[in-house]
Amino acid sequence: MACVDLRKILTDPKNVWSPQTSVRFPDDKDFVNVTERWTTFNPPTFAAAISPATEDDVIKAIKLARLHDIPFLATGARHGYSPTLGRLKGGLALDLSQINMVDIDHTAGILTVGGGTSLSQLFDPLDEAGYEILPPLLIYKTQILASLVYLGPESEAREAAKPILELNPPIKNLAVVPWSKLLATHGFGFDAAVNAKNIVRAIYGSNTRQISASTYDKVFAKMQAFYAANPDARTSLVELEIFPNQATAAVPHDRTSYPWRDAQGYMLPFFMWTERGGKTEEIVKKFGPDLRRDFVAASGYPDLQVTIPYAFGDETLEQIYGPDKLPRLSALKKAWDPDNVFAYLHPLPTEYPKTAKGKVSSTP
User: 14: which DSSP letter?
Assistant: First the structure.
């Protein structure tokens, strides 16, 4: 990036920002509130942040960044976790948290959201519109956990739950909440823990078509040894996500750019530790890909395939986007982003010869 005065550029009165649009710099006390990440592993750094209140201000901010050759990242709940984002240094954070509209077209059955809309902001509008929020079948990991929901007065609920409360469970949480807060409450605060920011996290995802019990046995044994050797990483876990894919699989493969419609689940070795850098981080950098290889070998795929938001950044372009999708995607990239402005999250090439294969470039 050329040496530019971001403060002068962004605070120029000629910009005529909306009154609700805010511009912040590292010396502002609330700068962290608009730049804090979900994970601190290999983070980008910012020299300024703008929180547009209107789409016009989003456009204006991007045009300024392009004019002055300022690298930027557009963020909502603080973007993804891929270490490739760490390539951005001293850039502009385009905080879209105010662009959080939710619009439901009942006739077309289409949900339109703003760039800064979070998942929690969808529950009430979808519920009020009569749409199911959760799929009919859910699977949780093995555990002893009772989550009782009573529709009625608290006194009646306590009486109904009395036999269980008399067992003196070591952890219990009793709360009266509206329906919109039920999911965030019934899991003993799990929702808040998952969404906590500013924690060191690294996730090595892969798609799977099948579940292998023997692979789980092998991985669990490795995790047991990992926990014993690295006590500061004992909050790490292995997560299997399975969502109903009937609707996904019903869409013809060539209709959209999404390549992995036959995936039945997503394996996520999910590492958390207390301090950036140091011994544990170096161990995770080797151990994470090792576990991923175990899952890929039993996945039913001939090679690593990973759904795009779960890509770590060390995969090939073909493993992320699918080889048959890349020619059209690269043509779109060339048409709409020929200068590679969007260069930090698994960037697409502007050209894709059929013979060109390899890992995602480590430089934009």
Answer: G
- Nearest Cα to Cα of residue 311 among 159, 85, 127, 61: 85
Q: What distance in Å separates the CA atoms of residue 270 and residue 310, rounded to the nearest whole number?
A: 11
Among residues 291, 253, 257, 241, the alpha carbon closest in space to that of 271 is found at 291
In whole angstroms, what is the distance from residue 201 CA to residue 144 CA? 27
Cβ(364)–Cβ(87) below 8 Å: yes
Please give the model's pTM, rounded to 2 decimal places. 0.70
Gap between the Cα atoms of 48 and 70, Å rounded: 10
Find out whether 70 and 115 touch, Cβ atoms under 8 Å: no
| pLDDT, mean over the chain | 87
Report the DSSP pairing between strands 22-24 and 46-51: antiparallel
- On whether the CB atoms of residues 326 and 228 are closer than 8 A, the answer is no
Collect all residues with Cβ–Cβ distance below 8 Å to 151 and sequence separation of at least 6: none
Q: Which tens digit of pLDDT belongs to each residue from 271-298?
A: 999 888 889 999 999 999 999 999 999 9
Closest CA to 82 of 178, 257, 203: 203
The upper half-sphere exposure of residue 151, i.e. CA atoms within 13 Å in the direction of its Cβ, equals 1
Beta pairing, strands 22-24 & 72-75:
unpaired
> Would you mind telling me the total number of residues written for the chain in this entry?
364
Contact present, 90 and 35 (Cβ < 8 Å): no
Give the pLDDT confidence of 211-246 residue by residue, as tens digits.
Answer: 899 999 999 999 999 999 999 999 899 988 888 888
- From the list 347, 272, 285, 281, the residue with the least C-alpha distance to 317 is 347
Edge-to-edge strands of the sheet including 22-24? 22-24, 46-51, 91-95, 72-75
